[in-house]
Automatic annotation (TrEMBL):
Name of the gene this protein is made from: mltG
UniProt record, GO biological process: cell wall organization; peptidoglycan biosynthetic process
Gene Ontology MF term list: lytic endotransglycosylase activity
Species: Sedimenticola selenatireducens
E.C. number(s) listed in UniProt: 4.2.2.29
Keywords: Cell inner membrane, Cell membrane, Cell wall biogenesis/degradation, Lyase, Membrane, Transmembrane, Transmembrane helix
Protein name, per record: Endolytic murein transglycosylase
């Protein structure tokens, strides 16, 4: 009688196990209940698989938290899920969902730092990005640079314009560190491959001049020629006389117009008043501007004036330049 009962129990257990495994297999291969557009799902650090399964079940996406946990344990992946923000797309099965959470392939956010931006524009873009964790709010430029490990360093021009990809929760400090490191690496490479006989003695001077070239033109093809003008003027000891440096020195008082009195205003950045380069960059130069400064176009032009169509007219002499000014700027 005992053995008969034992046999019944074993047989019943076998059937039950077989039924569970069949149900588990069906569960793991059938899509979970997601909208057509999918959902964004954020898995916080320290969240257990059990908590994830119950949360998805409560939201109505997962049919069985029990089966999801069982599937993960049988696969040996219950403790391998990774925190982050995931996009759960329609058609995802519990099996592929588990693989996604284990892979750590989180949603990638982007932020583009634009060539020619100044540091305040960089900070504004960072503070306005919802995926970045804010840790620098209220800090001065000096305090931010200290946090970056660069105390007493002026922030202007220190961050490479580019499109950066990052996961949600990346701190603003880590974002800036990455952009700063990218600029340092680019500047080191370009400086090592620079042309000889340039009137630039340090990589920082190249960065300063590149920031001016960046602000002078949006045409990539013109940058080497504009860089060539500035290089020749530096060699001759001429004033650079570039409006973007005047504007930067004016700060918030700039209202969109440069007057004759502004050109005479004695700020450290006024290259109509002071010879040589300004004390710091005036913007974030891109890779093209930096390359142009260290590989300037050959020639003899010493002046240029905007033609009003995005391009410039280059002149060798002051007389020719004044004629171009009357034509393109004064419309005479």
């Amino acid at each position: 009688m005992f053995y008969r009962l034992l046999g019944i129990l074993v047989l019943g257990g076998s059937f039950a196990f077989a039924w569970v495994m069949m149900s588990l297999n069906s569960f793991s291969e059938n899509p979970i209940l997601l909208p057509e557009t999918g959902i964004a799902y954020e898995l916080q650090p320290g969240t257990s698989l059990s908590a994830v399964a119950k949360d998805l079940e409560q939201r109505g996406y997962l049919q069985s938290a029990f089966y999801f946990q069982l599937m993960a344990r049988l696969d040996g992946q219950a403790s391998n899920i990774k925190a982050g923000e995931y996009h759960l797309q329609a058609g995802l099965t519990p099996k592929s969902l588990l693989a996604l959470l284990v892979s750590g392939q989180v949603v990638s956010h982007t932020l583009t730092l634009v060539e020619g931006w100044n540091f305040q524009q960089v900070l504004a873009a960072i503070s306005g990005h919802e995926a970045l964790k804010k840790t620098l709010v209220g800090l001065s430029d000096e305090e931010i640079m200290a946090r970056l490990g660069s105390p007493d360093m002026h922030p202007e021009g220190r961050f490479l314009p580019d499109t950066y990809h990052f996961p949600k929760g990346t701190t603003d400090l880590d974002f800036l560190k990455r952009a700063q490191r990218a600029m340092e690496q680019l500047l080191a490479r370009e400086w090592a491959e620079r042309e000889q006989d340039l009137p630039l003695t340090t990589p920082y001077e190249a960065l300063i001049l590149a920031s001016i070239v960046e602000k002078e033109t949006g045409q990539a093809a013109e940058r080497p020629e504009i860089a060539g003008v500035f290089i020749r003027r530096l060699k001759k000891g001429m004033l650079l006389q570039t409006d973007p440096t005047v504007i930067y020195g004016m700060g918030p008082s700039f209202d969109g117009n440069i007057r004759r009195s502004d050109l005479r205003q004695d700020t450290p950045y006024n290259t109509y008043v002071h010879r040589g380069l300004p004390p710091t960059p005036i913007s974030m130069p891109g890779a093209d501007a930096l390359h142009a400064v260290l590989h300037p176009a050959k020639g003899s032009s010493l002046y240029f004036v905007a033609k009003g169509n995005g391009w410039h007219y280059f002149s060798d002499t002051l007389a020719e330049h004044n004629k171009a000014v009357r034509k393109y700027q004064l419309k005479r």
